[in-house]
Amino acid sequence: MNRTLLVTCGHLVRHYQRFAADLEAQGIVVSIPPVKGQQLDSAEMCEAIVGQRLVIAGDDVIDRPVLEAGKASGLEAIIKWGIGTDGIDKPAAAELGIAVYNTPGVFSEEVADCAAGYVANLARGLHLMNASVRSGGWLKVEGMSLSGRTVGVIGLGGIGRATCRRLNAFGMTVIGYDPAEIDPALLAREGVTQASLDEVLSRGDFVVVTCALTPESYHLLSTEAFARMKDGVRLVNVARGPVVDEQALIAALESGKVATAALDVFETEPLPADSPLRKFEQLMFGTHNGSNTAEAVDRVNRLTVDLAFDLFGISGKPPRLVPLVAA
C-alpha cells in the first residue's frame, strides 16, 4: 500500500528539510500544500486530502466533508500537531473509522511561560512604555504589584497547572476552575486551590484562560461572565479564541469592567484588520504563538513524524500515542 502523507502544520513545514531524508528513505510520498494564513479551510482540505493515508495537521478545518473525501481515497488517520482538536469533527471520524491522534502534554511549560509573561506585562504596562519610547516619548506607567493579588485560572490541565506554578512564584494567590475534580495534593504542589467558576470570576484581579475549546467552553467568558468579574479586571487568553465572546469583551472594555487584556488567540485568525479590538491601545496581542519555541517545535515535529512511522508500520512498534478516536 502506498505511503502517502499530507503535511499542513506550518511548524513541521518550516523545518521539513530536517526530516525529509528519513521520510523519503522509507518511501513516504509527502504532500505539502500552500497555506495562506493560519490554516486550510474545509474546501482547501477537501482538495488536499485526496489520496492521503495519513495527515499531520495544524489548526486546519477537518469537518465531515473533509473526512468523507479522505475516507473515500484511503485516509486512515489524522495526527494533530499539538493539543487542541476543536477543528476536527471527531464524531464523524469515529463513524468513518478514521483514527485521530494529538500530542498531549508536549508544551505545557512553554505556553505557561507565555501566560505568566502576559500577566507581568499587563501588571506593569511594559508594552505601552515600549511603544512610547519607540515613538519618541517617555511614558511612565504606574503599574500594579503582583504579590498579594489574586489570579483565577480557567482550566487546570497541564498548561493550567504549569501556569499556576509560575503565578504562585510571583507571590499571587492562585485559584483555579476546572469542570473535572483535580487531586488536591497535585494542585497544592502547583500552588493553586480549586474553586468554582463563579469564585474564579468574582475574586480574580487577573483571569487567565488556559482551557480546551469544547462545546461547553465556547463563549464561556460571556456578557454574564464579565459582569461577575471585578471592575478593572485584567484578562489573559492563551487557550482558544472562541472561549471568549469578543463582542462581550469589547463591551466590557468600553465600560471599564475589563481594564486591559493580553490575547494570544482570537475568534478569527489572523485578527481581521477591521476588528474593533484594535482600537483599544491598552491591549496586547499575540499571534497564537504560545507554544512556539525552538525546543518545543523540534520535540513535537519529531514526535509526529515518529508516530507516522509507527502508523505506516515502519518502526515495527505499536503507535506510541493513544488515539483520541480509535479507527
TrEMBL record:
Location of the D-isomer specific 2-hydroxyacid dehydrogenase catalytic domain: 40-305
GO CC annotations on file: cytosol
One Pfam family hit: 2-Hacid_dh
Keywords: Oxidoreductase
Chain ranges of the D-isomer specific 2-hydroxyacid dehydrogenase NAD-binding domain: 118-290
InterPro entries: D-isomer_2-hydroxyacid_DH (IPR050223), D-isomer_2_OHA_DH_cat_dom (IPR006139), D-isomer_DH_CS (IPR029753), D-isomer_DH_CS1 (IPR029752), D-isomer_DH_NAD-bd (IPR006140), NAD(P)-bd_dom_sf (IPR036291)
GO terms for MF: glyoxylate reductase (NADPH) activity; hydroxypyruvate reductase [NAD(P)H] activity; NAD binding
Similarity comment: Belongs to the D-isomer specific 2-hydroxyacid dehydrogenase family.
Protein name, per record: D-3-phosphoglycerate dehydrogenase
